[in-house]
Amino acid sequence: MKKFYYTPGPSELYFTVEQHLREAVQNGIGSIHHRSDTFHEIYDRAVKNLRLLFGFGDEYEVLFLSSASEIMERIIQNTVQEKSAHLVNGAFSERFYNFSEKLGKEAIRVDSEWGSFPNIPDDIQNSELIALTLNETSTGVSAPIEKINQLRSLYPDTLIAVDVVSSAPYDQLDFEKTDMVFLSVQKGFGLPPGLGVLLINKHARKKAEEMHSINPHIPGFHSFPVLIKNAIKRETTETPNTLAIYLLSKVTEDMLTKGLEQIRREINYKAAVLYQAMEEAPLLSPFVQDKNLRSKTVIVGVTDHSEKILDAFDKKGILLGKGYGKFKNSHIRISNFPTHSKEQVEQIADLLVELK
Amino acid sequence: MKKFYYTPGPSELYFTVEQHLREAVQNGIGSIHHRSDTFHEIYDRAVKNLRLLFGFGDEYEVLFLSSASEIMERIIQNTVQEKSAHLVNGAFSERFYNFSEKLGKEAIRVDSEWGSFPNIPDDIQNSELIALTLNETSTGVSAPIEKINQLRSLYPDTLIAVDVVSSAPYDQLDFEKTDMVFLSVQKGFGLPPGLGVLLINKHARKKAEEMHSINPHIPGFHSFPVLIKNAIKRETTETPNTLAIYLLSKVTEDMLTKGLEQIRREINYKAAVLYQAMEEAPLLSPFVQDKNLRSKTVIVGVTDHSEKILDAFDKKGILLGKGYGKFKNSHIRISNFPTHSKEQVEQIADLLVELK
Q1: Residues of B in contact with A103 (CB under 8 A)
Q2: Domain that holds residue A193
Q3: In this structure, are B152 and B299 located in the same domain?
Q4: Pair B305, B220 in one domain
Q5: CA distance A29 to chain B (A)
Q6: Using CB atoms within 10 A of its CB, is residue A212 exposed (0-12), middle (13-18) or buried (19+)?
């Protein structure tokens, strides 16, 4: 029986991936060199499609790394000399904070209870970077875009890094209010894992160059100046996950053909159906209390019956996500990504309401 | 027209990859979590097959990183406090040296002309690590295994790291004479790129642990203690390139079924055919003069007619490799990996001899 993945990443592959992968192998994409013209074209197409999809301008360059976790570490290494601040409301925002601490920086954490979003602090002027997680995959909290705008107003000269790992391409960011935005491809884009994508603007690049001129011993392999020098040529530093970059260029094209507005409308509809079902369901209820903070792409319910729910869905060939970390046995997480169909989400909603 | 890749990596996919990839997608391998039982089994199968194929024991752990370049940087970060020594005879051994220098270590280089292999030095007692490239992809020089044994006799307590990127699984190493051995999958294993594999023994692990206890700020994302802690559970630190790990587990299985001895015999035969053709060819001759140093897996010719040769083969749907770096226009590189067929290699040899 075919299984359908509603886990919050890796998740169900975008419905066109199988076909693209077949064509990739037939056309030798797994064998091309990362300094060949064919590779340059693939990289360039991925960049152009991401630009159109997200709406960022030429001031941003697109870098390919191996995962969002790696990107967090590289952001700290390349843009934080002494001090970073982190809005922490879940496991992934905490991970970013941990990277900074581990690398010996003065890492400030602005906490809020998991399931909420921190108030924007007015006392972190000395930080060189402010990091926030737009969509906390661990709790299903989505920060309103206004929070980023508020940060930018208060700290016009501080770098702002935004983790959009599990919301992209849903959220519509104002890229003038951010400096670095990153994601991995195994969530909303529905690709097999193994590729992180970092969008980085001129301010962040300038900071990285300054840091490297002060300290020549910052690790060089995935240093931002080297990655950017290569990215301008539409190349990567090392032989990369070429297949994933190819698939990203293809899936973004499919999404542009469908239209982001249509994708967003469908996600909004499916999210409404799932939250409504969780309100009515006997065995679970929405974890995030503040409706304005409820993620549209990772929908989290709190329950005393997680095993029963997971099993009931598993029998129907549908894999829901367990809770994350400390919520492992008390939460159910359901991803609502572009590839998930309205019809199947409606079935999931019905079963949630029926389960006793 | 289908193109056949004889480039020295990425190269032609192993002939079973297309089928494995199709099954992977159908079985949801692109969607599984890296802490799931299915992932544990895939990781474990890859480890077991690599053990059987290479013949290393339980004292080695198998780590998955994103590329051989990343592995070089991580080896320096994790096992070299102050001083490393590098036998440098081409672009990739030089790259390893460069990583050490970039990270602020005292990096000693023991050079020999490109196309040869350095004499084993007797004066690098103070180095914590000795690095060598068993098969220099940039020049087609393969170091005799005795060189490693000689190093081990002279320096019984120094860590020895061996780059087998473009020779694996051909070479038969004595794993008691090495401490770290690494490769990437887009060469002899014939996989799409995006995965580096590090075999690491207890001595190297102990050194890494000591270094982390002295300096807690060594980057933690792909630190060896963290990678090893996860590897023991058959997990990776981040969501990895799952498809590549899966394909590695499958292709190593296919290679075990065929038998490494048979694969080695075929590679020996094909190498003999190609070198013989280069000796006879009007337009090129073998670059490596010392026959004992000639690589069996990356066969390099020197020529004044590289464009003419590449074009003639391209017209037949066969892609040979250009020279590397400074040899870009004066060398031709031909990979001779397990997937390359005897019949096609014989055709290549014939055409080399005919071309005027």
Answers
A1: 217, 219-220
A2: 17-257
A3: no
A4: no
A5: 8
A6: middle
Whether residue A121 lies within 8 A of chain B, CB to CB, comes out as no
> Do B176 and B55 contact (CB within 8 A), yes or no?
no
Per-residue pLDDT tens over the stretch A37-47: 999 999 999 99
B87: CATH: 3.40.640.10
pLDDT, tens digit, for every residue of B159-218? 999 999 999 999 999 999 999 999 999 999 999 999 999 999 999 999 999 999 999 999
pLDDT digits (tens, 9 = 90+) for B86-145: 999 999 999 999 999 999 999 999 999 999 999 999 999 999 999 999 999 999 999 999
Interface test with A, best of B238, B246, B340 (most A CBs within 10 A): B238
Looking at the fold, whether B220 and B333 belong to one and the same domain comes out as no
- Write the residue in A7, A73, A195 that is nearest to B221 by C-beta: A73
Tally of domains within chain A: 2
Average pLDDT over residues A203-227: 96
Q: What is the ipTM of this complex?
A: 0.97
Distance from chain centroid for Cα A310: 24
Q: Do A33 and B25 touch (CB under 8 A)?
A: no
Q: Is-above-0.80 flag for pTM? A: yes
| B184 DSSP β-pair partners | B196
Phi and psi, residue A141, nearest 5°: -100, 130
Q: How far apart are the first and last CA of chain B?
A: 25
Q: Is-contact B345 B336, C-beta < 8 A?
A: yes
* Whether B184 contacts chain A with CB within 8 A: yes
